[in-house]
Amino acid sequence: MNARVGYIAANTFREAVRDRVLYNLIAFAVLLSGAAIFVGQISIEIEKLVVINLGLTAVSLFGVVIAIFIGIGLVSKEIEKRTLYTVLSRPVRRWEFIVGKFFGLSGTLVVNTFCMAVGVFAALLYVSHKFMPADALILVALYFIVLQFLIICALALLFSSFSSPLLAAVFSFSLFVIGSFAEDLRGFAGMAHGITRWLATAAAYLVPNFSAFNVISSVAHEHAVAGQLVLHNTLYALLYAAAALSGAVLIFEHRDLK
Amino acid sequence: MAAIEILGLEKTYMVGFWRKRPKRALHPLQLKVEEGEIFGFLGPNGAGKTTTLKLLMGLVFPTSGSARILGREWTDPDIKAQIGFLPEQPYFYDYLTAHELLNYYGQLSGVPAKNRKQRIEEVLQLVGLTDVKGVQLRKFSKGMMQRAGIAQAILHDPKVVFLDEPMSGLDPMGRREVRDLMEQLKREGKTVFFSTHILSDAEALCDRVAIIYKGELRGVGAVADLTSSVQGRIEIVWQGTQVPASIKALGAECHVTADTVRAVISETRQDAAIDALRRERLRLISLTPVRTSLEEYFVEKMRKADSTAGGAS
Ligand SMILES: Nc1ncnc2c1ncn2[C@@H]1O[C@H](COP(=O)(O)OP(=O)(O)O)[C@@H](O)[C@H]1O
Ligand SMILES: [Mg+2]
């Protein structure tokens, strides 16, 4: 990887930290400990189920919101405030800027997720007093959540490269929601006929298939995750993010800065 | 080799929300700036100065034309290590301190880590921000931002420096410092290309200037040449309170005071005016050429441009 991409990524991370993005962790901690204490009266099995389900869902949602809201501003804010002028008038290629921003935000989300994960495990320890081998599955669920963030970051960058920040947020969030039901969408497409079938199938396969990434409830029930799914999701996320990022670069390469 | 060669750069923006219509911000521009020059790019607001600089920096793409910087294609990313740019009313990452900002820009420009720290201290000193180098830029005033902007433009020791309205937002003292700094850059053998709408800033400083108005180049040359091309005028003062009809006939603007008359006439009418005074036996007190300032040249040019544009439509 080239050094300038690294510098841009590091600066993006620093901006997120100084803009107090990581403060969301406080809200997360409050939510999680509140839930752990609240369900503290119920039997241990249910308690664990609730803590894992609620904890991981919160990790995912908090992260998605951060990915979208920072992601859409990553480039547009720099154009708006004209901070980009003195970056692009240096030996920085436009693609390096986009890719650096992507890694910076991804890094921020990884750190954010790591802190939340520590919280989830702490809550788990609080309710069940010890770790079990099956708890390691939570790590797989967290890994899938991070993979989702990569896709969403790249999509937020893509949408913000050709539309206003507000529209980009709407597009990104809609895709996240639709993508979470991608499997149902594929099922529905299979039942349709004629042209509708083709359109629905195309749409169902074009949206990011987030349903394959959601293993939260099966992990909570201690069902194992197939190694093949891990491999498949990893490749899928990397390819999808790379494609979206390439689109963002392609548009940004030809764009006038106002 | 020319430091900057602009080969017909042209920019038409599409404006309007629904029905986009073209707006030509810059007509094809030909301009050559030699190495080691301080070159002033003059024009009133909206003339197309910023557009030209943004085109040269690759921030916007030309409708047609190209440019060369230090003999290389202007889009060549490697040439960017050799140039510095101060945008108009610069704004920077406000969560960084001045020192962090310069360090980041030093990294991006490829300033080696071992020289970077020392170089940052040098430029901070040069623009007078040493005392506030640890303060976040969000606490900076407009003038301090401008200084930080100048610092980042010269940080990597570029050969050609582009400055868009470098004196704006500065007090008279600051303007003076920026002028001195530009002169120092020239002494170091660098080329300085700067835009301004304030003529007096350019007049004392530039080797050559270009004048741009409504996106079109109106004149290029040494300040002295440009001003001498404007019809010179003479101020004649004589004793008395009368303005003879023969002098009035020369088109003089006359001001009568207690016991003298001051008249300003075209240089070409000088002899006729003196003859007239002799004939009337009036005592001549003084005869001085009125130096045409760049300001006047400018106003003259604008007036001509507008009247020809008006006549055509
Ligand atoms: N992004 C843009 N979109 C449309 N018109 C623009 C844009 N930028 C500049 N212009 C127009 O181009 C002309 C030249 O502007 P500019 O280069 O900023 O002038 P200057 O820097 O000399 O004041 C102005 O009429 C301005 O309104
Ligand atoms: Mg301007």
Provide the fold topology:
The complex is a heterodimer of chains A (258) and B (313).
Chain A: H1 3-18, H2 24-38, H3 44-71, H4 73-80, H5 85-88, H6 94-128, H7 137-160, H8 165-180, H9 182-191, H10 194-206, H11 216-220, H12 227-253
Chain B: E1 2-15, E2 21-34, E3 38-42, H1 49-56, E4 64-69, E5 72-73, E6 83-86, H2 98-108, H3 113-127, H4 142-154, E7 160-164, H5 172-187, E8 191-196, H6 199-203, E9 208-213, E10 216-221, H7 223-228, E11 233-239, H8 245-248, E12 253-256, E13 260-266, H9 270-279, E14 284-290, H10 294-312
Parallel strand pairs in B: 3-8, 3-9, 6-7, 7-8
Antiparallel strand pairs in B: 1-2, 1-4, 4-5, 9-10, 11-13, 11-14, 12-13
Helix pairs in contact in B: 2-3, 3-4
Bound molecules: adenosine-5'-diphosphate (ADP) and magnesium ion.
Adenosine-5'-diphosphate (ADP) binds at residues 13, 15, 23, 25, 43, 45-51 of chain B.
Radius of gyration of chain B: 25 Å
Using only C-alpha atoms, the radius of gyration of chain A works out to 20 Å
The count of strands of chain A amounts to 0
Number of strands of chain B: 14
Bound molecules: adenosine-5'-diphosphate, magnesium ion
User: N-to-C terminal Cα separation of chain B, in Å?
Assistant: 42 Å
Regions of chain B with pLDDT < 50 over 5+ consecutive residues? none
Give the CA-based shape of chain A.
Answer: globular
Sheet of most strands of chain A: none
- Into which percent range does the helicity of residues of chain A fall? over 70%
Q: Report mean pLDDT of chain A, rounded to a whole number.
A: 91
CATH topology of the largest domain in chain B: Rossmann fold
Largest sheet of chain B: 6 strands, mixed
Number of helices of chain A: 12
Run of helices and strands of chain A: HHHHHHHHHHHH
* End-to-end C-alpha gap of chain A: 30 Å
> Beta-strand level of the residues of chain B, as a percent range?
25-35%
Q: Please name the two chains that share the biggest interface, counting residues whose Cβ lies under 8 Å from a Cβ on the partner chain.
A: A-B, 25 and 29 residues
CATH first level of the largest domain in chain B = Alpha Beta
- Mean pLDDT of chain B, as a whole number? 89
